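Hey, I'm writing a tutorial for new members on how sequence and structure tokens pair up, and I'd like a real worked example in the thread rather than a made-up one. If someone can provide the structure for the chain below, I'll link this post from the tutorial.
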Amino acid sequence: MSEPLNFLELTFGDSIWLLLFVAAATAPYVQSFRMKTPVSLATVISLMLVATLQFIHALVSSWFTSEFDPIYFGALIPQFVTEPIHIHRMISAGWLHGGAMHVIGNVLVIALVGLPLEGRLGAKRWMIIYVLGLLGGNLAWWGTHMDSWTPALGASGACFGLLGAYLACWPNDKIIFPLIFLIREWPVGLVAVIRLGFEVYYVYGAQSGTMGSTNVAHLAHIGGFFLCFAMGRLVAKGAPSELDDSSTSPYSMGGSTIPKIPELNSLHPWENSGFPLNDKAKRVMDRLLEEGDEFETRVAWLEELIEVAQCPVCGSEIIMDKGGHSIRCSTRKDHIQWP
């Protein structure tokens, strides 16, 4: 087999096709960045757009002869991937798929596992994990098939990387996933162990000769899983959600948790001040002191308080601080910042 096409050998028409594939892959990420929408869903759209363009290219190529083959150009071919001009295959292979069921299976996992994981990690760390899974899978396949000419492609290594990182960081989270013939919430640890167990079983069966040959790169799945499992907690340091903390829903995007708020006591700035609380404000303050231990309740009563009270120092209007759980003087911050 001859060496596959590289960048230096592209014709003008080939370059147009390549630009279309790059645009299809990157446009959802640009939109996600601009609109602050989940990067996991941008990845789903990106993979689907590239798969659609693959179908269109195959259809058009049946009418017009073209040297450009997206799979042969972008898939991982172990024989050549170490050459600098072919190194792009380590990444581009993850955006190419062998058929409709191949891409649908991967985007379902990215949507079902990736979305709640992004809720924990945040977009930037999620993307790091995704790329690590992709690289881990491709490195595992290359390391075990160095002499192969067969193109390897797909985002499965990245998908298993998401599971590996999730298991390492928030194993007690429950996510909606089709498992054991049921679509319901399952613990991430259970989902990850079962999926990984099947992959190990498939690899063992292929190696022992009990399952026959397969065109699925199970070793790539395992490689992506374990690299992200090993690196997950390191990448997740400083993420919106604390490691191992499953007290909040992973589906709250950005991994937002309820802020920690200072304790309230019966002493407040209006005691013995020049601008004491009137009767209505006193009643609000009493309710605030009684019920203000919960974040949402405190915010509600503080919003009531700023409507009926004034700065205890200068008598000016009081407003909510940026944090949303304290109030301050609208004129001078040093007059009141409470609680």
